[in-house]
Design goal:
Length: 295
């Protein structure tokens, strides 16, 4: 690894975003970095034939993003890890700059329809066609740049019903979107079918794909090691098991908060009730997968 690349990795690991992209583009063809997209991570890989980006950042962050990418940047491919505005907020801009947008088919469907945002009790409008993915897939896909093998695939029902991973195999960098959430409370869009069991299954897929050297990039927060990711996965599995036991006793989310169902774990929650409400709703929709005798 060159010094240049080590520096980049260090910056990525520290979660900093101060890297000037124009200088990056002048470097080797296999450079990658994480750009701040309005509080969410945008991964940018440069190659000889243009940029490959993961997620387009939150609305109103376009000036900052374009400054980070530089005026000479040629966005070639943009992946959306899922449909949320924090990940798709600047799709139009990057599509206009020449990027093909790749996402799961369900992501395109969510972006093509008005949808209810339960915690705000309002509808989010469908996105204009220019913002929607131009290429979708159902299970997996792959392509190569001059220097990078890129594999991508569906992670069913982990956070939404359209989550995907993007694995930059040659560089051993794995983007997982909101399937990992090292800082913010893990979120479950139960109304799409997402649930905590799906999240654990998806995290197991990521563990199988990765090794100890893999850099795992979540939708927000610092780049993770595989060991850190595994810790989060084990907490999710413990929470799944605990809330299922409480649900079988007739507890709702407020009862679970009062019973301390999230206590004693190696992380804290900013809003335990919201997490448990969403986890509970999602779990009840999938209860037959947890215990067939309860159907
Ligand atoms: Zn999200």
């Amino acid at each position: 690894m060159s010094l240049d690349r080590r520096e980049l990795l260090k910056s990525a690991l520290a979660g900093t975003v101060a890297i000037g992209f124009p200088s990056l583009l002048r470097g080797q063809a296999d450079k990658w970095t994480v750009v701040d997209g309005g509080g969410t991570n945008i991964i940018a890989f440069s190659s000889t034939d243009g940029l490959v980006l993961v997620d387009s950042g939150a609305p109103k962050s376009s000036d900052r993003i374009m400054a980070a990418l530089g005026s000479n940047a040629k966005p070639r491919t943009l992946f959306n890890t899922h449909y949320h505005l924090d990940q798709t907020g600047n799709n139009e801009l990057l599509a206009a700059a020449g990027a093909k947008i790749i996402a799961h088919e369900h992501t395109r469907q969510w972006m093509s329809t008005d949808y209810w945002v339960p915690e705000e009790d309002r509808f989010e409008k469908a996105r204009p066609k220019a913002a929607r993915p131009s290429e979708t897939f159902q299970t997996t896909g792959t392509f190569k740049t001059a220097t990078e093998q890129i594999d991508y695939g569906h992670l069913p029902l982990a956070h939404t019903d359209g989550d995907i991973y993007i694995f930059f195999k040659s560089s051993n960098v794995l983007a997982v979107g909101d399937v990992a959430s090292p800082l913010r409370d893990p979120a479950l869009d139960y109304f799409t079918g997402a649930w905590i069991g799906g999240r654990v299954d998806a995290m197991d897929v990521i563990l199988k794909l990765s090794n100890e050297q893999t850099r795992i990039v979540p939708a927000s927060g610092p780049v993770m090691t595989r060991a850190e990711f595994k810790t989060e996965r084990d907490i999710m599995e413990e929470v799944r098991s605990r809330i299922w036991k409480r649900a079988l006793q007739g507890d709702g989310p407020q009862d679970m908060v009062e019973a301390g169902v999230l206590k004693g774990l190696a992380r804290t929650w900013k809003d335990p009730y919201k997490f448990l409400y969403d986890a509970n709703k999602g779990m009840l929709a999938h209860h037959n997968k947890l215990d067939p005798s309860v159907i």
